[in-house]
Design a protein that fits this description.
Elements (H helix, E strand, L loop, with lengths): L1 E7 L3 H12 L4 E4 L25 H14 L3 E3 L3 E7 L2 E6 L3 E9 L3 E3 L15 E2 L2 H4 L7 E5 L3 H11 L4 E5 L9 H8 L4 E4 L2 E8 L3 E8 L4 E5 L2 E4 L3 E3 L29 E3 L11 H20 L1
Helix pairs in contact: 1-2, 1-6, 4-5
């Protein structure tokens, strides 16, 4: 069977692409290694997506999954291990099968780099977050910590400083990698405290996060009571299996502009695995719509 579009990844970007492709009467296959929904299923309450004031990540993902299926998308849970550009046709190789298609949309997303501490996964949504703009509003007038030293950590701390009572900014080095102008803005904030040369080494929780242990380079440990910990130590795009075919930047993100075209004709990208400035739920679904529209245009030409 020759598919019109194979979408790799069943997160918000991939499923939105499937919706647009289905509405255009294209034969669509969505391949997903894990479960539908992507990282958004771990979010207990989404309140920054248009139309829905409050919806859980799981409910959001289920709605978009069902919508894609009802429009004819075939969704198969197999891990993609390779893609091949054969000119007018492409091949997608999984751990179980090989599929042929006219176009491919890569929507594998990216994973948050974690601290690797016990209970970290269990505390997501219960004090641990990887997105300040997504979850910051839940911590109004409370005490939080941000861990990281790049622009994301600095911008998260600045954003949170306008919402919360106190922000601890924890960095493993004595200088930040992010922009100095943002550091200077943070230094002007009365409710931001810098903790240098230190790592978060333990999460203390009952049903939710209550405090963190921070160890400095000399081995001294301090316990800090916090309501929330925002982890901003980088992301890992899931593009390794495409590197032989698609151009990636130095961080492993797929190089593409706002039209979601890659360097290979007929292969497109959507979502957090591409080079972009803003990685939010709404921008992921936007990418899905754009990538599908571009794929449809390519097929029809």
């Amino acid at each position: 069977m020759l598919y019109d579009i194979i979408i790799v990844g069943a997160g918000p970007a991939g499923l939105t692409a499937a919706i647009y492709a289905g509405r255009a009467n294209k034969k669509v296959l969505v391949l997903e290694a894990k479960t539908y929904g992507g990282q958004i299923i771990n979010t207990p309450d989404i309140e920054n997506y248009p139309v829905e004031e409050h919806i859980s990540g799981f409910d959001f993902a289920t709605k978009i999954y069902n919508q894609a299926k009802n429009l004819g998308a075939e969704i198969v849970f197999e891990k993609v291990i390779e893609i091949k550009d054969l000119g007018k046709e492409k091949e997608v190789v999984t751990n179980k099968n090989t599929y042929k298609t006219k176009t491919i949309i890569l929507a594998t997303g990216s994973e948050n780099r974690k601290l690797g501490l016990p209970n970290e996964d269990e505390l997501v949504g219960k004090g641990i977050s990887y997105c300040a703009t997504c979850d910051g509003a839940f911590y109004r007038k409370k005490t939080v910590a941000v861990v990281g030293g790049g622009n994301t950590a600095l911008e998260d701390a600045l954003y949170l400083s306008n919402l919360v009572e106190k922000v601890y900014l924890i960095h493993r080095r004595d200088e930040f990698r992010g922009e100095e102008t943002t550091v200077n803005k943070l230094k002007e904030k009365d409710n931001v405290e810098f903790i240098y040369n230190s790592n978060v080494t333990k999460l203390n929780a009952n049903e939710k996060l209550e405090s963190i242990e921070v160890t400095n380079k000399d081995g001294n440990i301090q316990t800090i009571n916090v309501d929330g910990l925002f982890v901003a130590v980088g992301r890992i795009p899931e593009n390794q299996n495409f590197a032989k075919v698609i151009n990636l930047d130095e961080s492993g993100y797929i190089v593409a502009g706002e039209n979601c075209n890659t360097n290979v004709d007929g292969i497109f990208v959507a979502g957090d695995n591409r080079v972009k400035e803003v990685r939010q739920l709404v921008t992921a679904t936007s990418d899905g719509a754009i990538a599908a529209t571009e794929a449809i245009k390519y097929i029809n030409q």
